[in-house]
């Protein structure tokens, strides 16, 4: 299922065929690297310079799996170089991730999951809560994840807000604590505020609200995501914006609210408003880049991917606010001793700045901002976090130009974007009913 | 005496064991799980009928099954029509055996690539700004792109016909090749027209091949989920897709119940086909 992506000896290249297809990016790198090593182009020289800790003598491997967004090869390489810990990463979609946490508890050491998944799977008891006393940067974690409030006077958004499932009562507890305790379920790593993506060249008018996706002018040119737990939230934002319904809590709808939402979606679908429903990242990119749709649910790296094809695409801020999501690292219940220590060390390293800067440069946000700032140039920080125009070209972590000088980030600063979160991705009490109705919508 | 009675059993043992381990056991497990209960993260051993109740009483199930049967019907008719004529041409109009084999292999060449790639390659071709629409617009045949080409039932059926026609060609070609040519000559000598030869001699003798091809196509279409998902752009449902959704949401018992119902339905269809055509003649 996984591949040692930090292996610089060529062993990784010797068995590239075994690499999981879902980690195609990873395996391609592994293949190239292996080919380079086999070709006698000695990459070994730069490789094993200095392991700072004991893990060099007593090698530790941690098996991490999660969604594609943060399972990044570069992080595994840097982790190996800095800590000597080998990370084996497997990228799966969010459904497969939840299944694996529940059903194959011994197949992983670190789970990189989203908060709504955490709500679903934590009760299975396959993850162990973490002692915040061992988390070095705990005090500096963005308060969204601890108190739920970005600033002391902001409101907690609807849905599965990370702070509501971020803590449990004790080391063996499976019930979530209403306020921060010493035991954290996930250490937040990566989060963002999502909105609709548009083709500014094809919509032909300013887009301001979620309901604009229902404009008859875009008939047959819109799309929403077909992952029920996320799609229903986008649908809720649209319905509320269009004045169809006012929800008590979008993230935890009643049966009647689900019915109203789905009935409206079915009506809209039958009227031919949607072109397609997408499920994977690349489907959304293709729909947008090919002009099949002009306005749709989207994820921020997908917008970057469309733009990198030379096609104009904007991640449009909307008046009603964003739908946010967040992920974090959880430790498997079976970890103990040296492996558990290594897991804590890895998590502390994750928050110590290099990874944060890497994620911020991709347009996501990192959980500890102060350390990330130290690893970014002032211009990068001003562009990504403060919403100021770029003084020089803004490069992706791989060194590709993402924005040219003078550009401003869609949606502006961190506070403007994360401060305008209307709801979080969530799992509802009426989940089973919602999924049944969602299937009805897709089948209609 | 005793040995000769044991030997046939011994000979049948390996196949029995393989089928028991890889066919009977998994299906038995599915049947068992279909009676279990579940919540959003776990499944519990139980004996409840709620999975079947929810499946059968839901109008979604009915419309999904109807939709899947519709695809099966249309695809079956088209693959049969195309498959039969391709096989007929290969068997009766190509004279040399070498050429027949060469052309038959040509038919299989697309199958050297993965069927997902063959399916997905339709998307840039049929899209709003795809090759076909652009060509037609440049030629002045249409002024608006044809929207129905992609993400529609048309696209699903087109891709399925493309993917599954060979499964019809192969068995029909096989039966046509076994038809004794003397029978056709005899029919002609007896004054039959080409059409009468076709309907009275060739088609009846090709029935076993048609039946086998039909079983392939019908079971493939009934179980398909990826073609429906990609080519309809998620706008249509099929039984397989419904199950895939349920599995993705950890609702294994519901998916298992669905699988059992689908299995029963497909077995009934196969039984009906076998009832009409005696394929043993073929074997």
Automatic annotation (TrEMBL), chain A:
<dbReference type="InterPro" id="IPR006059">
    <property type="entry name" value="SBP"/>
</dbReference>
<keyword id="KW-0574">Periplasm</keyword>
<dbReference type="Pfam" id="PF13416">
    <property type="entry name" value="SBP_bac_8"/>
</dbReference>
<protein>
    <submittedName>
        <fullName>ABC transporter substrate-binding protein</fullName>
    </submittedName>
</protein>
<dbReference type="InterPro" id="IPR019546">
    <property type="entry name" value="TAT_signal_bac_arc"/>
</dbReference>
<dbReference type="InterPro" id="IPR006311">
    <property type="entry name" value="TAT_signal"/>
</dbReference>
<keyword id="KW-0732">Signal</keyword>
From TrEMBL, chain B:
<keyword id="KW-0812">Transmembrane</keyword>
<dbReference type="GO" id="GO:0005886">
    <property type="term" value="C:plasma membrane"/>
</dbReference>
<comment type="similarity">
    <text>Belongs to the binding-protein-dependent transport system permease family. CysTW subfamily.</text>
</comment>
<feature type="transmembrane region" description="Helical">
    <location>
        <begin position="252"/>
        <end position="277"/>
    </location>
</feature>
<feature type="transmembrane region" description="Helical">
    <location>
        <begin position="12"/>
        <end position="36"/>
    </location>
</feature>
<dbReference type="Pfam" id="PF00528">
    <property type="entry name" value="BPD_transp_1"/>
</dbReference>
<keyword id="KW-0472">Membrane</keyword>
<keyword id="KW-0813">Transport</keyword>
<dbReference type="GO" id="GO:0055085">
    <property type="term" value="P:transmembrane transport"/>
</dbReference>
<feature type="transmembrane region" description="Helical">
    <location>
        <begin position="102"/>
        <end position="126"/>
    </location>
</feature>
<feature type="transmembrane region" description="Helical">
    <location>
        <begin position="71"/>
        <end position="90"/>
    </location>
</feature>
<protein>
    <submittedName>
        <fullName>Spermidine/putrescine ABC transporter permease</fullName>
    </submittedName>
</protein>
<keyword id="KW-1133">Transmembrane helix</keyword>
<feature type="domain" description="ABC transmembrane type-1">
    <location>
        <begin position="65"/>
        <end position="273"/>
    </location>
</feature>
<dbReference type="InterPro" id="IPR000515">
    <property type="entry name" value="MetI-like"/>
</dbReference>
<feature type="transmembrane region" description="Helical">
    <location>
        <begin position="146"/>
        <end position="169"/>
    </location>
</feature>
<keyword id="KW-1003">Cell membrane</keyword>
<dbReference type="InterPro" id="IPR035906">
    <property type="entry name" value="MetI-like_sf"/>
</dbReference>
């Amino acid at each position: 299922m996984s591949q040692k992506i930090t292996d610089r000896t060529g062993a990784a290249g010797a068995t590239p065929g075994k690499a999981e297809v879902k980690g195609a990016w990873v395996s391609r790198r592994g293949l190239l690297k292996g080919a380079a090593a086999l070709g006698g182009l000695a990459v070994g020289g730069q490789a094993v310079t200095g392991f700072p800790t004991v893990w060099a003598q007593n090698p530790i491997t941690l098996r991490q799996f999660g969604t594609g967004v943060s399972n990044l090869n570069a992080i595994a390489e840097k982790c190996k170089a800095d800590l000597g810990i080998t990370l084996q990463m497997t990228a799966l979609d969010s459904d497969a991730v939840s299944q694996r946490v529940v059903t194959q508890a011994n197949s992983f050491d670190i789970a990189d999951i989203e908060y709504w998944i955490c709500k679903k799977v934590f009760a299975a008891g396959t993850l162990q809560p973490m002692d915040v006393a061992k988390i070095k940067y705990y005090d500096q974690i963005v308060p969204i994840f601890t108190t739920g409030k970005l600033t002391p006077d902001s409101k907690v958004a609807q849905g599965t807000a990370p702070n509501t499932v971020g803590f449990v009562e004790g080391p063996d507890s499976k019930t979530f604590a209403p306020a921060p305790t010493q035991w954290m379920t996930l250490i937040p790593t990566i989060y963002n505020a999502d909105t609709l993506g548009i083709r500014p060249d094809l919509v032909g008018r300013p887009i301001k609200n979620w309901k604009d996706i229902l404009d008859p002018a875009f008939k047959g040119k819109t799309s929403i995501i077909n992952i029920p737990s996320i799609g229903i939230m986008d649908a809720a934002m649209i319905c509320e914006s269009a004045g169809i319904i006012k929800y008590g809590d979008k993230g935890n709808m009643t049966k009647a609210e689900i019915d109203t939402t789905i009935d409206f979606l079915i009506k809209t679908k039958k009227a031919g408003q949607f072109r397609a429903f997408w499920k994977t990242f690349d489907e959304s990119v293709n729909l947008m880049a090919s002009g099949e749709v002009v306005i749709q649910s989207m994820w921020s790296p997908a917008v970057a991917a469309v733009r990198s094809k030379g096609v104009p695409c904007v991640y449009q801020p909307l008046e009603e606010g964003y739908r946010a999501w967040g992920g974090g690292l959880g430790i498997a219940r079976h970890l103990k001793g040296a492996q558990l220590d290594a897991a804590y060390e890895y998590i502390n390293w994750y928050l110590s700045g290099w990874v944060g800067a890497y994620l911020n440069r991709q347009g996501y946000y990192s959980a500890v901002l102060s350390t990330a700032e130290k690893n970014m140039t002032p211009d990068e920080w001003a562009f990504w976090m403060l919403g100021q125009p770029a003084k020089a070209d803004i490069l992706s972590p791989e060194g590709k130009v993402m924005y040219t000088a003078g550009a401003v980030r869609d949606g502006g600063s961190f506070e403007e974007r994360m401060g305008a979160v209307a709801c979080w991705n969530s799992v509802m009490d009426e989940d089973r009913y919602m999924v049944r109705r969602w299937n009805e919508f897709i089948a209609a | 005496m005793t040995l000769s009675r044991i030997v046939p059993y011994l000979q049948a043992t390996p196949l029995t064991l393989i089928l028991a381990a890889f066919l009977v056991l998994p299906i038995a497990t599915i049947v068992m799980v279909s009676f279990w209960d579940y919540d959003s993260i776990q499944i519990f051993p139980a004996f409840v009928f709620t999975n079947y109740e929810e499946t059968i009483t839901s109008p979604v199930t009915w419309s999904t099954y109807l939709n899947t049967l519709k695809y099966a019907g249309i695809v079956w008719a088209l693959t049969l029509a195309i498959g039969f004529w391709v096989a007929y041409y290969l068997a009766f109009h190509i004279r040399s055996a070498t050429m027949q084999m060469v052309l038959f292999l040509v038919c299989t060449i697309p199958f050297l690539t993965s069927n997902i790639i063959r399916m997905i390659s339709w998307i840039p071709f049929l899209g709003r700004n795809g090759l076909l629409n652009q060509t037609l617009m440049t030629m002045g045949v249409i002024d608006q792109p044809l929207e129905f080409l992609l993400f529609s039932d048309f696209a699903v059926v087109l891709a399925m016909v493309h993917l599954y026609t060979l499964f019809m060609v192969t068995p029909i070609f096989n039966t046509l090749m076994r038809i004794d040519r003397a029978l056709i000559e005899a029919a002609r000598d007896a004054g039959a027209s080409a059409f009468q030869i076709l309907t009275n001699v060739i088609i009846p003798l090709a029935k076993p091949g048609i039946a086998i091809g039909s079983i392939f196509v019908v079971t493939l279409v009934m179980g398909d989920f990826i073609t429906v998902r990609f080519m309809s752009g998620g706008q249509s449902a099929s039984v397989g897709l419904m199950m895939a959704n349920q599995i993705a949401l950890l609702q294994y018992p519901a998916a298992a119940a669905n699988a059992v119902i689908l299995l029963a339905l497909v077995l009934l269809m196969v039984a009906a086909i076998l009832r009409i055509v005696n394929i043993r003649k073929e074997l």
